[in-house]
Here is the input.
Amino acid sequence: MAGLNKVMLIGRLGRDPEIRYSQQGVAVVNFSIATSEQWTDKNTGQKQERTEWHNIVSFGKQAEILEKYLSKGRQVYIEGSLQTDTYDKDGQTHYSTKIKVFNFQFLGDRQDNQSGGHQQQGGGGQPQGEGRQGGYQQNNAQANNQYQQQPTNPGTTGSGSDPIPDDDIPF
Here is the structure.
């Protein structure tokens, strides 16, 4: 039986994305997002909150897009898989778990973090057109880095210069 390794998160960036390039010239972006849950303590009636931090990594053209449009405080939907790395430091083995992105959607406007969206799957592509005329989706099965753009919300139009369209969460 095959396994399943899938993570879906909606959270806010805790810091600006950091991009670097491998020796082969492949872009690698790292950032962290926070997710929070709230509840009321049954004994005290006090509201409680717990925040969990998630380390995110992305590669290639997708990494460049994330670095360009994300910034600290921005809300984002991430789909990916867990990836655990090990390393030795001072003779002890340490573990680092990250979420490797394969799909994302920007949530909130770049200016006020309250509206907008942008979907992308797989490894790249470019935002489509000017204004808010729809997003795009990238299918992992496409070969030779040729990206076919498809509107995700063709009914939405606007006159702004923000290439990130208005879209809902993809579920």
Summary: The chain has one domain: 1-37+51-171. Confidence is low (pLDDT under 50) at residues 112-167.
